[in-house]
Amino acid sequence: MAEVPQYRLGEVERKLLTLYALRELGPCNNLQLIAFMTENDLMNYFDLQLALYELAQRGQVLKEPVCGDERYTITPEGEQATELFVSRLGESALVKLRAAVPDFSERMRKERELFAQISHESRNEYHAQMGIAEGGMQLLRLDLSLPTAELADRFRAAWAENAREIYDFIINRLSGEDLP
What we know:
By secondary structure, the chain is α+β, with helices and mostly antiparallel strands. 54% of the residues lie in helices and 24% in strands. The relative contact order is 0.11.
């Protein structure tokens, strides 16, 4: 038995939904947008990438390189298009998107405060780059050179759970406040 094809958005709806998501979420990197759209069953990866490309070409989103990814921001032209044509989107898609924004925005906020990524420098050198930022200011940044990808990934994965404790330890130790 053949699978019933899923409904696909038309070109205009795809672009409008992308613009609307950026308007509601604020600036997002590509990975965040992919996660938001796919996790909430709003749009697939390929349709999103096509929409982002076309919107950037038309000047309705601004695409900036950041930390090995791209960040997208809606432009005034994109805001205007959203205002003019949002009624072309189905109400169910808008309701679904609006309902998903608060939880996802909180998740993005936490990801911005605690960041961890891995870079591969040479054959046996991996860097786990981890840090804490608050209110747009970087409080701590660690760049650890590690011999294997597995170890670097373990450090990256453990960072979110241990970051605050590590930060407190460093502050207390260096300030001399951790005396017995």
